[in-house]
Amino acid sequence: MNAGELFLIGATHRTAPLGLRERLSLSLENEAELAAELTALAGLSEFVILNTCNRVEIYAVGESEWQARKVAAAFCARRGFALAEFERIKLMLTGRPVIQHLLEVASGLDSQMIGENEIFGQVKKAFLTAQVRGSAGPVLNRIFQKTFQAAKHVRTHTGITAGLVSVSNVAVELALRIFGKLGEARVLLLGAGEIGLKAGRAFRSRGPASLVIASRRLERAREAAEELGASAVSLDEAMAGLGNFDVIVCSTSAPGVIISPEQAAAAVASRQGRPLFFIDVALPRDVDAGVAALKNVFVYNLDDLAKIAAENRSARESEIVRCRQILDQKAASLWAQLDRTPGITPGLDPAGVKATGPAGFLPGEAMACVA
Asked: Pairing state of beta strands 297-300 and 276-280?
């Protein structure tokens, strides 16, 4: 294997609020440009970029800790984010704590919604993307493959996934709290991507009066609508008729807000006193923060949904402890294998004394699930 130090640098929902995560999030184009820059970075032999709604993390192998600083500088420059500000919210780990953190991420233990399933696929996609671009070498290949095995094990042999542990299920639960039942509710999905489809399936299972899908590409909306047994409209048509819907799930990839307070006010004014419910699971957010101040309008974003999901955590506390024990053993075993491999530098002791995070976190604690 190539000589080097294993490290992780990034920011997550545990270190940065939603507003900052919006500024740090990478579009597909941004991610490709950053990957090209990191590929040319001297002393950096491997890297994988994990970019989701709740985290941007770069797992890497470099000659020394100096490469981690260069990666942070490149990332901040790419996002137009002040390096000094990033220092206050960053997650920085080296050595075995990197493995422990990745295991917990892929298993859903570090998610806002403990036990959610989407993250496993997102980690796998990030790794496959790195393989295609050639940035995942022998060290990260071994770590990620072992991570997938461990994540499948804890999901299969524990009850960590019990309860409402997905954005889609929590969104439906919220809608039920507001409307009582969905049999007469008209649901609009803005965005026909993976998140939108999952939300559509969750709402369809509750039998709404109608389910409509809108996308910038009408063809894509029609494909999704056919899969879900829904109707399809263009994004322009949907935006012009927001007041016709009771529940609006926003999950577009737009670079900024698409629903302003003025648009929402016009929509609710046409509803004759009936509430209007926005579920904004996009990052950056689709719904302007000012919309929440409108009378008879309910707006829930990713952080709000996570708080609702936390209500179901108490029933899984024992499973969380059990999962962490299993993953700790697997992290120790994998780190021992890497430590015995010629060319791999341990980087730090197993306690993670180099790990840094937001104020109030002890060394090595940044990966813990405390929410």
From this structure: parallel
Task: Say if residue 326 is in the same domain as residue 233.
Answer: no
Q: Tell me: do 9 and 158 sit in the same domain.
A: yes
Question: Domain of 194: which CATH number?
Answer: 3.40.50.720
Note the pTM of the prediction, 2 decimals: 0.71
Structure tokens at 123: 């980690």
Question: Among the three residues 292, 310, 328, which one is the final residue of a domain in this structure?
Answer: 310
Of 243, 290, 291, the C-alpha closest to 268 is 243
In the block, tokens 């940035």 appear at 135
What 3-state class would DSSP assign to 258? Answer: coil
The residues near 245 (Cβ < 8 Å, ≥ 6 apart) are 186, 187, 188, 212, 276
Q: Are residues 182 and 304 in the same domain?
A: yes
Catalytic site includes residue 250: no
Q: Tally the domains of the chain.
A: 2
Reported as a single tens digit per residue, the pLDDT across 197-241 is 889 999 999 999 999 999 999 999 999 999 999 999 999 999 999
Range of the domain at 213: 167-310
Using CA atoms, how far apart are residues 223 and 37, in angstroms rounded to an integer? Answer: 36
Compute the distance between CA of residue 28 and CA of residue 129 in angstroms, rounded to an integer.
11
Per-residue pLDDT tens over the stretch 292-317: 999 999 999 988 888 777 766 665 67
- Give φ, ψ of 289 to 5 degrees: -60, -25
